[in-house]
Amino acid sequence: MSMVDDALRTDSAAIASEMARRDRMAVLARADGKQLRALWTGLSLDPAFEMIRGPETGLATVRGRISGDGAPFNFGDVTVTRASVRLADGSVGHAYRLGRDQGAARLCAVIDAIVHDDRIAERIDRTLVQPLRQAQQDRDARRMAETAATKVDFFTLVRGED
Fold this sequence. Notes:
- Helices cover 52% and strands 25% of the residues.
- With 162 residues, it is of the alpha+beta class.
- It has one domain.
- A 3-stranded antiparallel β-sheet has the order 1-2-3.
- β2 and β3 (92-98) form a beta hairpin.
């Protein structure tokens, strides 16, 4: 094996790890706070941590585009809560969530820090992230069905005498 093969293998592992973290944090950021806390309690994990930053709540500007490819414009502001923690072992975690739920933001930051341990990461992904993802998919499907029920099909009749 060459040094290039080793570097590629290391880069691939780092990319996979970063993508797993992005996916996990995306699910946690959208999770219902009550469900998140209930699933966390079921894990019986209670790591010692210190707050590095926050939790603090502020505003972020949301940008949009007409038709998805037009010029960007400022759509409005949303409330965002962020938190950063450091575990006793030195692992650091960060989290951002829409809304004002500071407890959920703190918990997401703790989860982000604790998953640096691969054994715990697998357990959290299986028993916490997967149920949250499924609940989000079910909620999205329900909303899409409710929206589809209100769809109106417009059509034009062509008159023969014109």
